[in-house]
Amino acid sequence: MRFFVDDDFDLEKIAESGQCFRWEKMDEQTYRIPAGNRCLYISALGDGWFEADCPEKEFDLFWREYFDLGENYRNIRKRVDPEIDPFLHNACESENGIRILRQDPWETLISFIISQNKNIPAIRRSISLLCEACGELMADNNGENYYAFPSPSALLALDDTALKQCRLGYRCSYVHKAAAAVCNEEIDLQKLLSEKEKETIRVLTGLYGVGVKVASCVSLFGLHHLNAFPVDVWIGRILANEYPGGYPREKYAPYNGIYQQYMFAYYRSREHRR
Fold first, then answer.
1. Interior angle at CA 226, CA 221 and CA 228, nearest 5
2. 117 and 168 in contact (C-beta within 8 Å)?
3. Which one of 8, 18, 104, 106 has the fewest CB atoms closer than 10 angstroms to its CB?
4. CB half-sphere exposure, 66, CA atoms < 13 A
């Protein structure tokens, strides 16, 4: 099916934004996207048009929400005054096309636990190995096989040797204990979808090996709390260099997470150009 998006929507910028680790680039315009028990091929056709290899009903029931197409990101960018905050304005304009995906909270939790002190290629590799180790073998609409992200019970059933073979390193125990917490109902990720960000961070940091940064990433990328503001090395550098007097978080609420993504991508691209 073909569909039109009258808003910011750039597949490559989303794929490179650091929020998702299983998108696979097939060619210059096409991505293969596993999500839950589904897998989508989506291509940018130009001028706001896209093509997806699924029925319209499936797209409307699942993928439209996954891509957060009900939110107007263009209007969110326009909230930033170029005279008052030229840095953030430039970041928004340079990186427009990024959207915050509505990803599965469980997959997001494990992915960002794995992400600690790893670069993106290493994160992708570890997640791929984990899916192959205990994820369900599925077939996409083209008949090609892929592995679904493993359930908490499937992951919990892996022993230490199998986890280490996924190149998790010291994160093996973090991943295993997170799976145990979900299986034992010590944490309810679906319930956190309706909680406020502060409560979400409190609950998530109660998990072994989960600090504020990972909890904030899960809040933003897995629970879609758009005001969550993860601070990593890049964002720490931005806050120090661009906002020495303090970043005006209250002013940019309730979309600080979106602005964080613009800043993160913009600074990385500027550093790359130097």
1. 80
2. no
3. 104
4. 19
* Number of domains the chain is built from: 2
- Give the global pTM: 0.94
Q: Rounded to an integer, what is the distance from CA 162 to the centroid of its chain?
A: 26
* Cα 162 to Cα 100: distance, rounded to the nearest angstrom: 32
Residue 98 lies in a domain: no
Max alpha carbon distance in the chain (Å)?
56
* 274 residues of the chain, pLDDT tens digit each: 999 999 999 999 999 999 999 999 999 999 999 998 899 999 999 999 999 999 999 999 999 999 999 999 999 999 999 999 999 999 999 999 999 999 999 999 999 999 998 888 999 999 999 999 999 999 988 889 999 999 999 999 999 899 999 999 999 999 999 999 999 999 999 999 999 899 999 999 999 999 999 999 999 999 999 999 999 999 999 999 999 999 999 999 999 999 999 999 999 886 545 4
The string of DSSP codes covering 58-126 is HIIIIIHHHTTTTS-HHHHHTTS-TTT-HHHHHHHHHTBTB------HHHHHHHHHHTTT--HHHHHHH
In a domain, 45, yes or no: yes
- Does 251 map to a domain? no
Domain limits at 170? 105-221
- For residues 212-229, b (16+ Cβ closer than 10 Å) or e, as one string? ebbbbbbbbbbbbbbbbb
